[in-house]
Design a protein that fits this description.
The complex is a heterodimer.
Chain A: H1 2-29, H2 33-38, H3 44-54, H4 60-72, H5 86-121, H6 126-140, H7 143-157, H8 170-199, H9 202-209, H10 214-226, H11 228-243, H12 246-251, H13 257-266, H14 270-298, H15 300-304
Helix pairs in contact in A: 1-14, 5-6, 5-8, 5-11, 5-14, 6-8, 7-8, 8-10, 8-11, 9-10, 11-14, 13-14
Chain B: E1 5-16, E2 19-31, E3 36-40, H1 47-55, E4 63-65, E5 68-71, E6 74-75, H2 81-87, E7 92-95, H3 109-121, H4 125-138, H5 144-147, H6 157-169, E8 175-179, H7 187-204, E9 207-212, H8 215-221, E10 224-229, E11 232-238, H9 239-244, H10 249-256, E12 306-310, E13 313-316, H11 320-338
Parallel strand pairs in B: 3-9, 3-10, 7-8, 8-9
Antiparallel strand pairs in B: 1-2, 1-4, 1-5, 5-6, 10-11, 11-13, 12-13
The chains are: A mainly alpha, B alpha/beta.
Amino acid sequence: MLVYTAKRILLAILVSLTVSALVFSLLYLSGDPATALAGERASQADIMAIRAAYGFDQPVYVQYFKWLAGAVQGEFGESVYFRLPVIDLILERLPVTMTLGVCAMIFALALSIPLGVLAAMYPNSLIDRAALLLAVVGQAMPSFWFALMLIVLFAYWVPILPASGSDSWQHFVLPTIVLGYYATPAFMRLTRTGLLDVLSSDYVRTARAKGLRPAKVLFKHALRNAIIPVVSLAAVQFGFMLTGSIIIETVFALHGAGFLAWESISRSDFPTVQAVLLLFSWFYIILTFLADLLNAWLNPRIRVA
Amino acid sequence: MTPTIKVENLRVSIPLAAGVLHAVRGISFEVAKGETLCLVGESGCGKSLTSLALMDLLPSRAKREADRIELDGADLLKLGERDMAKVRGSTMAMIFQEPMTSLNPAYTIGNQLEEGIRLHKGVSASEARERAVYLLEKVGITGASSRLGQYPHQLSGGLRQRVMIAMALMCGPDLLICDEPTTALDVTIQAQILHLLKDLQREFDMAVILITHDLGIVARVADRVAVMYAGEIIESGDVDEIFSRPTHPYTQGLMNCIPVPGKTAYGERLGTIPGIVPSMIGEMTGCAFANRCAYAEDICLKTLTTRELVPNHAVRCVRAEEVAALNAGLDTATASAGSPA
């Protein structure tokens, strides 16, 4: 297990470095950043001044290592638009995104796993079909539309929940449902398929032949093996919920980090874009690493690999 | 002496789109303490379903019916799922064909060995552990106590089957059902496992039902044999009797498929049974083997009876006596032809 963990950490570091290089190179993808920053009517002297101020005149690798050294210490420079340290901006927005992501994740798992288990236990039954319908609807419905429908329903027709803002827990209810529901179908179908597979396995038959209670067979012997792919997917989905919540944050006017990224892209606020991208990528990497550890704990065969 | 298990007219049917598949069609047998009954037959003849039916572990679609299934005198048909679970793994245990996949990859050997006895007998963790170590040693696993912490993927197929056997014996069952316990193992390991099963049966004085398609295994371990074909027991009796005087044409066909050392010439073709097994969907009249039988006559397609030729040798064939007589004549003929004039 120690060797496995060490290998995973090393891999995570390598991936982080690669991602950081990619994120940094984004800066130059849209041409000369100094020209872009100086604006349309800037003189050559202004551009030169900006280039010197931001260090764009230095060799690219020097810029990269300076930037990376700063990033590792949480130093991402100053936002071009807000004139504030980028890290402060992100730290201010991150709690909203985190709260939304965690709530949506819990909602999605709490809804999908029991439904997936029921669907697998009674395949082709009414509950299985209802779960399938829920999955198809969830997959087919655009989340912004679902968000708007929920606002119409619960903030306008039956005004029991706020439509926008992030001041109280009630503000998070609708966004959580929208974001969580989006992830539900995949979890549910994966749980169902995995469990159906495992329930017909030889070791589940062995467990039944031992005279174990059905609940013990299901939860101890079947679900633990069936849940392994769900863990990997959950890590990816959680990353997606944090980074991909831009639309949801916009619809519900939740000022989270995803919203910040979107704002900064449209304002060419490249230090902020870079910082958000890098942090989200690192977050993804850490989640994947944790999912790997969790899977190794669930499945002893992975540990030796 | 009352038999450990007594089965009367067991039927298993599976409803399919094309009709009802009668996989097991009214079989009866009993096995006493210390006795080994081999259920032998080809793939799909219903032998595995029979064992699952005894354990009440049939797939949910399959339907089990019987006049009587008695274990130690108690009627298993009357038990609900909860009471049946108490019997499973405690008084009646089972070993499966696939040792590679029959253990849960996520738990240690110790965990899987101990959970049954802790549930059924309510023993403490240390007592369960002691019993597990004792049985692992009994089944010939060295360093038993250190094995308890290992996972199935760390063991070879032969070792896993030994673990499965130890697991089945944890609660000291009266009846052990072994469904093709050596089929997935290589030949040297097969011999060891069969030997082990025989020793353990003697030591723990269990009734054993061993399911196999391998007549070599039958010859080695069985006290009594029941040959199955198309969901029925077509011939049963003491092992010596069946091997020396196979009477049902199907049993004879099976015997002809085996090369006999010293008798079968090098390069000689082994016997085959022409034709294929009939569809078991829907009702069947007459003998299921009639379409492949060299002795079949019109009567075979209409009626079917079980005849006891000698005590402890029953044949499910209308013409059993005639076939037996023909064979006896054949034997004398070949014997006289082979002897020097």
